[in-house]
Write a structure and sequence with these properties.
- The model is unreliable at 15-22 and 286-291 (pLDDT under 50).
- 49% of the residues lie in helices and 17% in strands.
- The protein has a single domain (2-290), classed as 3-Layer(aba) Sandwich (Rossmann fold), CATH 3.40.50.
- The chain has helices at residues 2-13, 37-50, 67-71, 79-83, 89-92, 117-133, 147-156, 167-181, 199-217, 231-239, 243-246, 251-263, 272-284, 287-290, and strands at 24-30, 55-60, 94-95, 101-103, 136-143, 158-163, 188-196, 221-228.
- Strands 3-4-2-5-1-6-7-8 form an 8-stranded mixed sheet, sandwiched between helices.
- Bound molecules: adenosine-5'-triphosphate and magnesium ion.
- The site of magnesium ion has 5 residues, from helix 2.
- The site of adenosine-5'-triphosphate has 19 residues, from helix 2, strand 7 and helix 10.
Length: 291
């Protein structure tokens, strides 16, 4: 497992991890299943793409892939075909809303570590290619502390742990963070509380987890913010349209955009006016006074 994670990570680490250099890789994961990873991953990818970042979304849930269901996309071939050598990356990638590129997952794939060398190499080559050709790569992982999930998170180097306010989800999120805290180098860890009834509730849960991680795991976990519970999320899943597109002004959509902004998964638009104004400030001092 360790060898595999190292291999994945060193391959992905070959590319710069800064947004402006391209190739930032973020794995979205959770301890407990069903907390909202896929909806959050898709929301972040759409928000990033809307801001102008070239974004690829990998369905890395090797057990039960379902990004294609949420986005109503159809692909003849998927990650399973790629790993088996039956399709090339370019044959599998699908273009989704906002121009995001999607690598559709396969259900029932074996653990990465158990795939065997040739299949692992195909997966690594494909991920490496995506990292080098996009500014942002988001990997939606499966839930729980399985080898594949941990390998993907370690390889990404940056992880968003999703939880809900439910005690079971919180305990499982902490268990996940504990695993990351034992890894060297430790991935950068973010936390988001999804399906919160209020911002206050989310803040309380996030503060508790980050404080415990800091105290007992010596792990810095950054609070990425929260996504409120919103019945329009499941209504959108039924419509097979992501909620940020079906209900762009809903509370959940607004919160996803805030999480994206907090995490910096957005292109920073340097407006000409803004730059010139700052130049004036530097050389002339107060802009008003310079007129
Ligand atoms: N903010 C929210 N408000 C209301 N319902 C939500 C919210 N986020 C997710 N859900 C609902 O929770 C369910 C699970 O969401 P999702 O599939 O994104 O979770 P997941 O963590 O990816 O699940 P899995 O572990 O099975 O991959 C869905 O039915 C979705 O509609
Ligand atoms: Mg999912």
């Amino acid at each position: 497992m360790r060898d595999q994670a190292w291999k994945l990570r060193s391959l992905l680490a070959e590319s710069p991890t800064r947004l402006n250099g391209g190739g930032r890789v973020l794995a979205v994961t959770s301890g407990k299943g069903g907390v909202g990873k896929t909806n959050v991953s898709v929301g972040l990818a759409l928000s990033a793409a809307r801001s102008g970042l070239s974004t690829v979304l990998i369905d890395g849930d090797l057990g039960l892939a379902n990004i294609d269901v949420i986005l109503d996309i159809h692909s003849e071939k998927n990650l399973g075909h790629l790993v088996e050598g039956e399709a090339q990356l370019r044959e599998i990638l699908v273009t989704g809303p906002e121009g995001i590129r999607i690598l559709p997952g396969a259900s029932g794939l074996t653990q990465v570590a158990d795939m065997g060398h040739t299949r692992q190499q195909r997966l690594l080559d494909a991920m490496g290619e995506l990292v080098h050709s996009h500014e942002l790569v988001i990997i939606d992982t499966g839930a729980g502390i399985s080898r594949s999930v941990i390998d993907l998170c370690q390889a990404a180097g940056e992880v968003l742990v999703v939880t809900t306010p439910e005690p079971t989800a919180v305990v499982d999120a902490y268990a996940m963070l504990k695993v990351f805290s034992c890894d060297v180098p430790t991935p950068k860890c973010w936390l988001t509380v999804n399906q919160a009834q209020s911002r206050g509730e989310a803040q309380q849960v996030a503060s508790r987890i980050t404080a415990l991680a800091n105290k007992f795991l010596s792990l810095e976990v950054e609070n990425a913010g929260s996504v409120l519970f919103d019945p329009r999320v499941s209504a959108s899943v039924r419509k097979r349209q992501h909620f940020t597109r079906a209900y762009p002004t809903s509370p959940a959509s607004r919160s996803i955009r805030e999480v994206a902004a907090t995490m910096g998964v957005q292109k920073v638009q340097e407006s000409r006016g803004g730059f010139l104004n700052r130049l004036k400030e530097v050389f002339v001092g107060d802009i008003g006074g310079a007129r």
